[in-house]
């Protein structure tokens, strides 16, 4: 059993959680993730490791409670425990001195961006962060990302905070100003990552996207996170989660990302009907996308 040390709501239905997992805390690197399971019949949910404290033996994750399993996770408090915490999994982010790096986080994608951004800055790069969300209430980790960035732009789709527009709007403005960009790292909803890749493709700016939203089993055995990259079949969990954004077949990815919407919604409906009281209940449909 893996004890929960703290659960804090940092935005509407977005939670930061510290979990006691000493081995993972010592070994994890930027870009890697872990798998959480609560209850013997609970589903496996992959979440990026946002941070760790090796001295305390803790790891930190951030997630949005939008499906049954993540809703169960959000109700866990200090002293409660997960049945399983497995990790670190996935290939770490390749970090070197690239030059100027643009880090783009859309919505909950700011969480996996944070450890990567910190590692990029520590390696001596100039880091410019673009942080975006639909509304002001969904902006997370602004202070933390600003602290590791040389410059930062915040956007909201509805204009309720900072600059009105999309992250791609801010990115295009940088390109139009003649900003020298050596690498772009984009993490967020699939449609956002696709849009970023289309903008950078025209200028041949190397772009890395993280496909963690489609992971399920996280061991390469279930095959649900299959994605075509450069004409070859890859598995997001074991071959990634990061890939060349210009090589990803986003059309296929969008369709795969919607495969289990019906089952996920049915599981959430049952959970809400039951009053959300069964924390050790069965798996919520299929552990997939941001809808877990």
Which key terms come to mind for this protein?
292 residues, alpha/beta, Elongation Factor Tu (Ef-tu), domain 3, Rossmann fold, 2 domains, seven-stranded mixed sheet, five-stranded antiparallel sheet, 9 helices, disordered C terminus
Give the secondary structure arrangement, pairings included.
Elements: E1 2-11, E2 14-20, H1 22-27, E3 33-37, E4 45-48, E5 51-53, E6 58-64, H2 68-74, E7 81-82, E8 84-89, E9 100-106, H3 110-122, E10 126-133, H4 142-147, E11 151-156, E12 163-164, H5 167-176, E13 183-187, H6 190-202, E14 207-210, E15 226-229, E16 232-235, H7 236-239, E17 242-244, H8 250-257, H9 261-273
Parallel strand pairs: 9-10, 9-13, 10-11, 11-12, 13-14
Antiparallel strand pairs: 1-2, 1-7, 2-6, 3-4, 3-8, 5-6, 14-17, 15-16
Helix pairs in contact: 5-6
Write structural notes for this entry.
27% of the residues lie in helices and 30% in strands. It has 292 residues and is α/β, with parallel strands linked by helices. It folds into two domains: 2-89 and 260-291, Translation factors (Elongation Factor Tu (Ef-tu), domain 3), CATH 2.40.30.10; 100-256, Rossmann fold. The two termini are 21 Å apart.
CATH superfamily of the largest domain: Nucleotide-binding domain of ferredoxin-NADP reductase (FNR) module
Question: In CATH, what is the class of the largest domain?
Answer: Alpha Beta
How much is the radius of gyration in Å? 18 Å
- Side-by-side strand order of the widest sheet: 12-11-10-9-13-14-17
Would you identify the regions where 5 or more consecutive residues have pLDDT less than 50?
277-292
In angstroms, what separates the terminal alpha carbons?
A: 21 Å
How many β-strand stretches?
A: 17
Oligomer: single chain
Q: Given the C-alpha coordinates, what overall shape results?
A: globular
Number of domains: 2
């Amino acid at each position: 059993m893996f004890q929960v040390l703290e659960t804090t709501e940092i935005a509407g239905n977005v939670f930061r959680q510290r979990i006691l997992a000493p081995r993972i805390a010592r070994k994890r690197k930027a870009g890697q993730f872990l798998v959480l399971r609560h209850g013997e019949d609970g589903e496996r949910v992959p979440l990026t490791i946002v941070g760790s404290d090796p001295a305390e033996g803790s790891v930190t994750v951030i997630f949005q409670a939008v499906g049954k399993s993540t809703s169960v996770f959000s109700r866990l408090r200090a002293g409660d425990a997960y049945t399983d915490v497995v990790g670190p999994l996935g290939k770490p982010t390749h970090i070197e001195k690239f030059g100027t790096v643009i880090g783009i986080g859309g919505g909950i994608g700011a969480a996996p961006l944070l450890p990567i951004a910190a590692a990029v800055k520590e390696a001596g790069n100039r880091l410019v962060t673009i942080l975006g969300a639909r509304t002001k209430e969904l902006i997370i980790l602004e202070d933390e990302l600003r602290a590791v960035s040389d410059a930062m732009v915040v956007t909201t789709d509805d204009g309720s905070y900072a600059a009105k527009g999309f992250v791609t709007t801010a990115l295009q403005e940088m390109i139009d100003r003649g900003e020298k960009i050596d690498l772009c790292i984009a993490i967020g909803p699939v449609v956002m990552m696709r849009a970023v890749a289309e903008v950078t493709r025209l200028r041949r700016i190397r772009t890395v996207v993280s496909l963690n939203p489609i992971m399920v089993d996280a061991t390469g055995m279930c095959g649900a996170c299959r994605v075509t990259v450069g004409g070859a079949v890859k598995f997001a969990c074991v071959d990634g989660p990061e890939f060349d954004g210009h090589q990803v077949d986003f059309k296929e990815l969008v369709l795969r990302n919607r495969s289990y919407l019906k089952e996920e919604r049915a599981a959430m409906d049952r959970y809400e009907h039951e009053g959300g009281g069964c924390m050790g209940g069965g798996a919520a449909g299929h552990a997939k996308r941001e809808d877990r």
